[in-house]
Design brief:
Blueprint lengths: L6 H7 L12 H4 L6 H13 L6 H8 L6 H5 L6 H14 L5 H11 L4 E3 L4 E4 L13 E5 L5 H6 L2 H18 L3 E4 L2 H10 L4 E4 H4 L8 E5 L2 H6 L6 H7 L3 E2 L19 H4 L1 H14 L7 E4 L2 H10 L4 E4 H7 L2
Parallel strand pairs: 2-3, 2-4, 4-5, 6-7, 6-8, 8-9
Antiparallel strand pairs: 1-3
Length: 321
């Protein structure tokens, strides 16, 4: 089993309560099974027997937002995020994936990547972005997820097949630089796309000086997965914006499931609860400006918490407030 590779994490996390406040799903469902400790206990049950694993336990594994906040802030950095993805792989291999997961996985396998426009830089348009947001002078590539979403869902072989199609399309474009606004895609492509320089849009776009108070909602991928990445929060400060702290502490994830890539398509009712939780934490929902580096986060907040004013970091860098 894949989870056997995470034996140390299973043993450590199932006896630890220290990071339970960092599970964005657990904070809105109030279920112990939706915390790192709960998921580690379920992994232990999986090792005992997959045949008798209850559906509720399986659902809990797939309801994780995989923000990696727990791993990032853990004093020993136990890889709870990696454990969850491994558990999903084992569940998928056993033919026990929940129905919503099967449906979305089939949709994610259906890709058709195409390159349009002219330029020597390629801009990847993910499913939560718009071609209109592509920087001037860039070709665009679109047509589906790069393979990260399938990887996160536990469909490893399918993820590799989709990524191979994406890589071939990139190679055919002739571009040696790829830019994306999607933090999940940035992380995945940095890890897997060889021979091409991969940049997050915040490091590529021209930065416009500005002023005013904003709340920056840190990206799960840029903060918890890409340790070497300079936080856009620092860039906003240097540009002249005044950043106010959001929420109850700087460790929590306020992305509404960005780590899981397509969370709103899997469990929309939980995604809505996470968005409402973020709205409740806002000081003045009708006047505060929330900035996010994730097109996914902006899309789901606009959908489930329309009372909030949410700006994509790209917009701020190009146009200011």
């Amino acid at each position: 089993m894949k989870i056997d590779e995470f034996q140390e994490t299973i043993h450590a996390c199932r006896f630890c309560f220290m990071c339970r406040h960092l599970s964005a799903v657990g904070n809105v469902t109030f279920r112990e099974s939706d915390t790192p400790r709960g998921r580690a206990l379920i992994a232990g049950k999986m090792q005992q027997s997959m045949d008798t694993l209850e559906q509720d336990y399986i659902d809990a594994i797939f309801k994780s937002e995989i923000s990696a906040s727990c791993r990032f802030h853990c004093v020993s950095h136990f890889d709870e995020a990696g454990l969850v993805i491994a558990a999903r792989e084992d569940i998928v291999a056993a033919g026990k994936a929940p129905e919503p997961v099967k449906v979305v996985a089939e949709q994610l396998k259906n890709v058709s990547f195409s390159v349009e426009g002219s330029g020597d830089t390629l801009y990847y348009v993910d499913s939560y972005s718009d071609k209109k947001s592509a920087p001037a002078g860039c070709k665009t590539i679109s047509g589906g997820d790069t393979g990260r979403a399938l990887q996160v869902l536990g469909y490893t072989a399918d993820s590799e097949a989709v990524f191979a199609q994406f890589a071939n399309a990139v190679k055919s474009s002739g571009c040696v630089k790829l830019v994306t606004s999607c933090p999940a895609s940035f992380y995945f492509l940095k890890e897997n796309l060889n021979g091409v320089e991969v940049m997050h849009a915040s490091a590529f776009l021209s930065s416009k000086k500005g002023s005013g108070e904003v709340y920056y909602l840190e990206s799960d991928y840029l903060k918890n997965y890409c340790a070497e990445f300079v936080s856009p929060a620092e860039s906003l400060t240097k540009l002249g914006y005044s950043l106010k702290p959001f929420g109850t502490n700087p460790e929590e994830s306020y992305t509404a499931g960005e780590g899981a890539v397509v969370y709103d398509r899997l469990y929309p009712e939980v995604a809505e609860k996470m968005c409402k939780h973020i709205s409740e934490l806002a000081d003045n929902p009708t006047s505060d400006v929330l900035v996010t580096a994730s097109p996914y986060t902006k899309a789901v907040l606009n959908k489930y918490a329309p009372e909030l004013t949410v700006k994509l970091l790209d917009e701020i860098l190009v146009k200011g407030l």
